[in-house]
Amino acid sequence: MTDPLIDISNIDLSSHCLKPDELDRMLPQTGDMRQIDRVPWVDDVYSNAVGVKDVTADEFWVPGHIPGRPLLPGVIMIEAAAQISSVLYQLKMQDGNAGFLGFTRVNNCVFRGSVVPGQQLVLLAREQKFQRRRFSCWAQGLVDGNVVFEVECTGMRI
After folding, report:
1. 49 near 39, Cβ under 8 Å?
2. Which H or E run includes 146?
3. Per-residue tens of pLDDT for the chain, all 158 residues
4. Angle at alpha carbon of residue 96, lines to 95 and 97, rounded to 5°
5. SS3 of residue 103 by DSSP
6. How many separate helices (H) and strands (E) can be counted in the chain?
7. What does the alpha-carbon distance between residue 117 and residue 60 come to, in Å, rounded to a whole number?
8. Where do the DSSP E strands lie in 7-133?
9. Which residues contact 42 (CB under 8 A, 6 or more apart)?
10. 11, 40 in Cβ contact below 8 A?
11. Domains with residue ranges and CATH for the chain
12. C-alpha dihedral sign at 112, 117, 119, 121
């Protein structure tokens, strides 16, 4: 099993280091497409972040993926990774004018476990490369401290 990118043992996952309106400003996804409930921790140089998604039984995908045994779709896990990576980029830009971010590439994606309703998906992101218009992050998802997926996300400002 891969080691987590960030040691979360001393992070209060129920806390909020970003106010809800700050998160709303950074992530244009709303409603069913918002895959981060809160961001409990970001390092001082905006190179590492932790996000949390509380996976619930009333999410849109539950009835159809898979009936009788709902599993969080991998594409939604990747979207969650992209969203926590976007938060890092927006914070690092600091000028409030980061603009719209689009993802251009997903590399080295590996699923190592499943996520089901009632579980908490902890999202870790570590900056890999940062430029004004382009960035990439390593991201992972953890359930109960175990890595359930990892991916490299690349995005750019549009």
Report:
1. yes
2. strand 146-157
3. 589 999 999 999 999 999 888 999 899 999 999 999 999 999 999 999 999 999 999 999 999 999 999 999 999 999 999 999 999 999 998 865 667 899 999 999 999 999 999 999 999 999 999 998 999 999 999 999 999 999 999 999 98
4. 90
5. strand
6. 2, 6
7. 11
8. 38-42, 48-54, 101-111, 120-130
9. 17, 18, 48, 49, 50, 87, 88, 91
10. yes
11. 20-157 (3.10.129.10)
12. positive
Q: Which residues, at least 6 apart from 94, have a Cβ–Cβ distance to it below 8 Å?
A: 46
Q: Please name the helix (run of DSSP H) or strand (run of DSSP E) that holds residue 37, with its range, or none.
A: none
Annotated active-site positions, please? 65
- Both tokens of 88, joined, read 């890092």
Q: Tell me, what's the pLDDT at 20?
A: 86
- Given the structure tokens 């990118």, which residue do they identify? 5
Encoded tokens for 151: 């991916």
The residue type found at 68 is G
Q: 81 and 123 in contact (C-beta within 8 Å)? A: yes
